[in-house]
Write a structure and sequence with these properties.
The structure is a single chain. By secondary structure, the protein is mainly beta. Helix content is 5%, strand content 52%. The protein is built from 1 helix and 21 strands. The strands form 6 sheets. It has a 4-stranded antiparallel β-sheet, with no helix packed on it. A 4-stranded antiparallel β-sheet has the order 5-6-7-8, with no helix packed on it. A 4-stranded antiparallel β-sheet has the order 9-10-11-12, with no helix packed on it. It is globular.
Length: 280
C-alpha cells in the first residue's frame, strides 16, 4: 500500500512539472495509400521553441504488415495544432457511410451529435446517458455500423480516475454499455492513452499503465457482447511522459508513441516506438 502511495506521489509530482522531452515526439499515425504513415516532430536541444508546431516535422512509412516502406524523412511544412491528435469531442466529425456525425452538446459532460445525411438534412441526436453519469474529460469517439464508442474519464458521485469505454448501439434507448479500461498514467489530468481504433471486430486503445513501481505499455481491446475488456502488455518500453497514436488497416494495427531512452552519449532522448499487431 505504501509503495502505491509513493508511486502516486511520484507520478503526480513529475506530471505537475511536465515538459516534452528532447528528441522525436508526438507521433500521429494515419493511413495513407494503404500504408501507415507516422508523422512526428523533432525537438532539438539547440532549439528554443517549446511549441511542437514550430519543430521540424518528420515522417516514416510502413507497409500494413509492419515492414518499412520509406525511412525517416523530413516533410517541408509546419504541423498544425489539429494534427496533434484528439483534443476532445466537441466539433469532432466522424464519417459513417455517407453520413457525418458532428459532436457537441448543450451539457458539456453528456454529448450528443448532429447527424448530417448525404442529402444535406440535419437532425439532432441525444445519446442516452444514465442519470448521474458525467464525463469530466473526453478522449475520443469512433462510429461503426453497429454503434458509437466513446472513451473518457468519469465523475460519478466521487471523482473516478479510471479511463472508461462507453458503447452506444445504434437504435438503442437504454444506457450505454460501460467497460473500464483501467488506470492510466496521467499528464496533469489527461490520460496517457491513444485514440480509439476498430479492427478485427474489436475496439482498441493503447495506454501507459502504472504497474507496481513501473509504467508499462498496455493494449486494451473489447468486442461488443463481452463483459470485460482484454488487456495485453507488448514487449515494448513504457514511459509516463508519452503520446500514443493508433490506426488500423483492415485487421492490422499500428501503435506509435514516443519514449525516452538513453542514447549512445548517455543523454536521454526520446524516440518513436512502433508496435504492429494483427487484430484478433
Amino acid at each position: 500500500m505504501l509503495g502505491k502511495f509513493i508511486l502516486f506521489t511520484f507520478l503526480t509530482a513529475i506530471a505537475q512539472g511536465h515538459q516534452d522531452p528532447w528528441g522525436d515526439i508526438h507521433p500521429q499515425v494515419k493511413v495513407m495509400d494503404g500504408k501507415f504513415a507516422i508523422d512526428f516532430n523533432n525537438s532539438s536541444r539547440n532549439r528554443d521553441s517549446d511549441y511542437s508546431e514550430e519543430k521540424p516535422l518528420m515522417r516514416v512509412i510502413y507497409n500494413a504488415d509492419g515492414t518499412l516502406f520509406a525511412p525517416r524523412h523530413p516533410i517541408g511544412r509546419k504541423r498544425s495544432h489539429t494534427e496533434m491528435g484528439p483534443a476532445g469531442l466537441y466539433g469532432m466529425t466522424v464519417t459513417l457511410g455517407e453520413s457525418t456525425l458532428i459532436f457537441g452538446s448543450e451539457r458539456s459532460s453528456q454529448p450528443g451529435y448532429i447527424l448530417k445525411r448525404a442529402d444535406g438534412n440535419l437532425s439532432k441526436v441525444a445519446l442516452p446517458w444514465p442519470e448521474k453519469t458525467f464525463l469530466d474529460l473526453f478522449e475520443d469517439v469512433i462510429a461503426t455500423p453497429e454503434g458509437i464508442a466513446i472513451t473518457g474519464k468519469g465523475i460519478e458521485d466521487n471523482r473516478d480516475e479510471t479511463l472508461g469505454f462507453h458503447w452506444f448501439p445504434h437504435g438503442g434507448t437504454g444506457p450505454p454499455v460501460k467497460v473500464d479500461i483501467g488506470k492510466t498514467a496521467c499528464i496533469y489530468d489527461f490520460p496517457v492513452a491513444s485514440n480509439l481504433a476498430f479492427a478485427g471486430g474489436r475496439f482498441w486503445v493503447g495506454l501507459m499503465r502504472p504497474a507496481d513501481e513501473k509504467i508499462k505499455l498496455a493494449l486494451w481491446s473489447w468486442k461488443p457482447g463481452e463483459k470485460e475488456g482484454r488487456v495485453e502488455f507488448p514487449d515494448s518500453p513504457g514511459d509516463w511522459n508519452s503520446h500514443l497514436s493508433l490506426a488500423a488497416i483492415g485487421d492490422r494495427l499500428c501503435l506509435a508513441y514516443h519514449c525516452v531512452t538513453p542514447d549512445k552519449r548517455g543523454l536521454e532522448d526520446s524516440r518513436i516506438v512502433t508496435v504492429f499487431r494483427k487484430a484478433d
